[in-house]
Write a structure and sequence with these properties.
Helix Hairpins; 49% helix; 271 residues; elongated; 3 domains; 8 helices; alpha+beta; Alpha-Beta Plaits; 3-stranded antiparallel sheet
């Protein structure tokens, strides 16, 4: 039996020859490798064009899946199956299966795609997302990784991020420090405001523009509460806040301005 006769052997009951089977397998295998090569090329090209990494990952995965489906459809056409009907059938079945089996995964991919487009944060930003606070380490197609202040790694599915509030503390160059300091009702309010403003303006990390604010915020139960709002560069936020907290306390002590603790008068009546 020569090669030609071997390829023309027909499988009983199905009417498919050996040639059909080999051709289908070759097309599917070659299609798979083409999908891998093309998707990698697209991924590298998008990264070279300085597009978001998550967008490159998402796009390359979609392209790979589409090419594999196309190759599979052509492959089964060697079995006498109508390609158009096959593509429709594969799409319906795939959509049904993926919709149930990979609902969470697809949701994470879709959310990751939206994160890549809108760019609410980038690697290195300090954020509040999905109930966690930390610095962004990696933004992937389906998950986002961040590190907390106490050096814990948190991995969050993108579906938990997109659609919920995202607070980015380092997205802008400047931040306002919001401080409240209470003074006694017996102290001179004008003097306390002057002392606090003097401390703020002397701090080298505090920006002159926008100018800082010191004012009476409210009359509390046990104290007159001052509002102190200086502006600083974002990277110096915590250092400046810690310095001002200590400096204002020391300046108030020096000027005999008291910071009262909460207190309550209790009156006892006897019958």
């Amino acid at each position: 039996m020569d090669m030609q006769e071997f390829l023309e052997i027909e499988i009983p009951y199905v009417g498919i020859t050996v040639f059909n089977i080999i051709s289908a397998l070759v097309v599917i295998i070659v299609g798979y490798f083409i999908a891998v090569i093309v998707s990698k090329y697209i991924h590298k090209a998008m990264l070279k064009a300085k597009l978001a990494k998550i967008l490159a990952e998402f796009t390359s995965r979609i392209v790979r899946i589409l090419i594999i489906i196309f190759a599979f459809a052509i492959g089964i056409s060697f079995f006498g199956v109508d390609v158009g009907a096959a593509v429709i059938s594969i799409s319906v079945v795939s959509g049904f299966v993926l919709g149930f089996a990979f609902q969470e995964t697809l949701g994470n991919l879709a959310a990751g795609f939206m994160v890549a487009i809108t760019k609410p944060f980038k690697v290195g930003d300090y954020v509040d997302i999905a109930g966690h606070s930390g610095s962004i380490n990696n933004v992937g197609a389906s998950i986002t990784k961040l590190t907390t202040l106490d050096n814990k790694r948190v991995i969050i599915p993108n579906s938990k991020i997109w659609g919920n509030p995202i607070v980015n503390y380092t997205a802008l160059k400047q931040r306002m420090i919001d401080m409240r300091v209470g003074i006694s009702y017996r102290d001179n309010i004008g003097k306390a405001i002057t002392v606090a403003m003097d401390v703020v303006k002397k701090n080298k990390l505090v920006l002159k523009d926008p100018s800082p604010t010191v004012a009476v915020a409210e009359l509390g139960d046990s104290s007159v509460n001052l509002l102190i709002r200086p502006w600083v560069n974002t990277g110096e936020y915590w250092k400046t806040k810690w310095e001002l907290t200590q400096q204002i306390k020391e300046a108030f002590d020096k000027e005999k301005i008291s910071i009262p603790f909460p207190q309550r008068d209790v009156h006892i009546f006897q019958k």
